[in-house]
Design brief:
Elements lengths: L2 H27 L4 H7 L4 H29 L2 H14 L1 H11 L3 H32 L5 H32 L3 H19 L21 H6 L5 H17 L5 H8 L4 H29 L1 H18 L6 H29 L2 H32 L17 H19 L14 H8 L1 E2 L7 E2 L13
Antiparallel strand pairs: 1-2
Helix pairs in contact: 1-7, 1-8, 2-3, 3-6, 3-15, 4-6, 4-8, 5-6, 5-8, 6-15, 7-8, 7-12, 10-15, 10-16, 12-13, 12-14, 13-14, 13-16
Length: 461
């Protein structure tokens, strides 16, 4: 690589990381608290489930429009920066909802609508951003780059979470929590609007797709039996269905059923972010070396265990510990899933494949969440698992348990359907876990934060 190319890569990295850090602040001060906001507005379990999954589903449907828009306009930088600014502006109405509609189901309904509009911008943005970054980041350093970028985002999310939780707790102590939530969404709006400027220096290579690289969603689906990438999509989407079966209801469980304060709730959420921060760069290097499918396999088994841990105790210290554990392995799973797309799909087809993947994922996530909400609202009397298997009284524990079983089913049946798409070194699950268990912090001294957990895996593959 010449000196000029090296300097350009450094500039690309700085701009992309800056945008990612600002996006992380938006997530930590805004998106993370949307479910808690819905609970504060006295939304029902079904409404909270819809708040978590209906807007992403609508956003996923808009990804196909994004592909068409990109092909017609041709300049990705202008589209990305415009959509980022629109995303920031759409956070402002969410901050004003309780002052317009008060507190109750009507306000939650409007919150779902505003969040759906917000997710439309995410849906329009995702294929364009991924296509653009896929062209700018060299394949041989992609895992390391996104590992570093995601690590910076994790620490920024953590800081934003802590500050936002403190703000929310302060306003709550003054008995005006509504102003706390509004403040958080306004901060998120300002930061997200500012993020667009950080991408202005990036190169803007032209985008064009040949006719033979275009295909419909139904053509994509019909290749499910022979396409390695489509098999990967159904694995990841099925895992997300299992997660969505319980995911939207953890906030209700923590805030309503076991009555955590906002500080305790923030601590539990932040623990996952800390886990991500410690290992993201290591997961990136491991995915470059051993392949993304291997990382998906190792992390898939671990995240399937997570819901069962919630059945053991509702003590806040235990919840913080299991969320830290969850963050460690979700960091690897999500990073590997994102990077697999770059490896498996050629640049001309990448945006379209990402859009179609989002549709499948959005539909399955919505189905999972609605079934979880329905079970909690209507079938609790027929599934009194909490009276037999654990001591907790919350009916949400039923949903957590079933979510864990669904995750194991996805891992055992669908993971083996697809293969790694590039030459990589071989390693067993135990070796990967031992490597990730030893973190190299900034001080340079290695330490093991998972203890001997890496040696209790169900064999090597």
């Amino acid at each position: 690589m010449s000196e000029g190319e090296s300097n350009q890569q450094i500039s690309i990295s700085k701009s992309s990381v800056t945008e990612g850090v600002l996006d992380a602040v938006k997530i930590g001060s805004g998106e993370t608290y949307v479910s808690a906001f819905g609970v504060f507005l006295q939304g029902t379990a079904l409404q909270i489930g819809m708040l978590s999954t209906l807007p992403p589903l609508i956003g996923a449907m808009f990804q196909t429009i994004s592909v068409v828009l990109m092909e017609k306009v041709g300049t990705r930088r202008a589209l990305v920066t415009t959509l980022i600014r629109a995303q920031g502006l759409l956070l402002i109405p969410m901050a004003l909802l309780p002052f317009i509609f008060g507190i109750g189901p009507t306000a939650v309904t409007w919150l779902i609508g505003c969040f759906a509009l917000y997710h439309m911008t995410i849906g329009l943005l995702a294929p364009i951003w991924n296509s653009w970054m896929g062209d700018l980041i060299p394949a041989e350093t992609r895992g390391s780059f996104f590992g570093f970028r995601n690590r910076c985002m994790a620490i920024s999310t953590f800081v934003a979470l802590v500050i936002s939780g403190s703000i929310l707790n302060l306003f709550s102590a003054w008995h005006v929590a509504v102003f706390g939530f509004s403040t958080l969404f306004l901060i998120a709006a300002l930061v997200r609007y500012r993020a667009a400027r950080s991408l202005d220096p990036l190169p803007n290579p032209p985008y064009a797709v040949a006719t033979h690289d275009k295909f419909t969603f139904w053509q994509f689906i019909r290749r499910a039996h022979q396409s390695n990438f489509v098999k990967f999509v159904f694995f990841v989407s099925s895992m997300n269905l299992a997660v969505a079966f319980a995911g939207p209801y953890f906030a209700i469980y923590m805030l309503r059923d076991i009555h955590l304060s906002y500080v305790e709730y923030t601590s539990v959420v932040a623990a996952s972010v800390v886990g991500q921060f410690l290992v993201l760069q290591s997961w990136g290097k491991l995915s470059d070396q051993f392949g993304n499918r291997k990382i998906l396999a190792v992390c898939g088994w671990q995240v399937a265990l997570n819901p069962f841990m919630w059945l053991v105790s509702d003590h806040v210290a235990w919840l913080i510990m299991i969320q830290f554990y969850s963050g460690v392995f979700w960091a690897g799973f999500n990073l590997a899933a994102a990077n697999f797309v770059f490896d498996a799909v050629s640049p001309p087809k990448r945006a379209r494949c990402i859009a179609y993947q989002a549709i499948i994922n959005g539909v399955l996530v919505f189905i999972g969440s609605m079934f979880g909400g329905y079970l909690t609202s209507h079938c609790a009397a027929y599934l009194p698992l909490h009276q037999v298997l654990w001591s907790g009284e919350s009916l949400f524990l039923n949903v957590f348990c079933i979510s864990g079983f669904l995750r194991f089913i996805a891992v055992t049946t669908l993971l083996r359907k697809f293969k790694e798409v590039r030459p990589v070194a071989n390693a067993g699950h135990r070796e990967i876990l031992v490597r990730i268990a030893h973190v190299q912090p900034i001080t340079g001294a290695a330490f093991s934060f998972l203890g001997r957990a890496g040696r209790s895996v169900n064999g090597d593959k």
